[in-house]
Each structure stands twice: as C-alpha cells, then as structure tokens.
Amino acid sequence: MTILKELFKDFEFNNKTEYKIKKVKGIELPKDYLDFMDEHNGGEGKIGENGYAKIYKLEELEQANEDYEISKYFQNYFIFGTDGGEMLLGYNSERKLYYAVDACNIDENEIFYVSESLLEFFKKIDE
Residue 20 needs a FRET pair 20 to 30 A away by CA distance; which of 26, 37, 38, 102 works? Predict the structure, then answer.
C-alpha cells in the first residue's frame, strides 16, 4: 500500500468533479495539490492515526478564501481546508510551502506544519 493510501485509509473522499481551476485569488495552485484534487476533489476524515482534515472541494475554494479573508491577512496564500478544528490548511505560493495556521489568530508567526510537498504536509498532520 502506498504512503498516501495508508494515510487516507479512513478518509471519505468526495466524488470526482469536472470542475477545473488553476488559480485562487490570482494565486497559482501547486501541481501536487491539483493532481491530488483531480483524483479525489477533497473530502473529510482521519489522516493516519492522529490527524484529521476537511479538504474543500475545488468548487468551494474561492468562497472559503473569501469567507476567511485570507488575502486581507496573508499575501500569496490560499487555504484549501481545515483540521476539523481551529486550524486552516493552506499554501504559500511565494515560498512554495504548505502550512497550517490558527483561524482565530491569523498571524504569520503562528504558522505550523510547514512542508514543501502535499504528501509531507499530510504526514505532518498525522504526527
């Protein structure tokens, strides 16, 4: 079993979609994220033994980023989900890093789970 399948064995994926998007608020979406979403279009559930996430459908990205006013607080960032609690999951297009940040304390100094690839990011969520 691949690492990704093992991490997502208890995760309920959404149905695939024909909806295509390459940018959110002018921010180019990373290839590994788009590949993952092309296959799964997000979902919700456990990641590994210790993690949990709700990954927004592609159709929901623009609205989620507007609702949280991400561009107001962070330049070159977009969010694509939550940890089921207070943490927002996202990507910084300038630094090319995945991150999590507390939705109630939107401060660039409060960023967690930083990694260069989506797979490594999901592994850190499981830690």
Answer: 102
Q: What is the pLDDT of residue 67?
A: 93
pLDDT, tens digit (0-9, with 9 covering 90-100), for 11-32: 888 888 877 888 888 889 999 9
The angle that helices 118-126 and 31-40 make with each other, rounded to 10 degrees, is: 70
**What are the b/e assignments for 47-86, b being 16+ CB within 10 Å?**
bbeebbbebbbbebbeebbeebebbeebeebbbbbbbeee
Alpha-carbon span 17 to 12, nearest angstrom: 15
**Dist. CA 115–CA 102, nearest whole Å:** 17
Which pLDDT score, from 0 to 100, does residue 1 have?
Answer: 45
Domains of the chain: 3-126 (3.40.1580.10)
118, with CB counted inside 10 A (0-12, 13-18, 19+), is buried
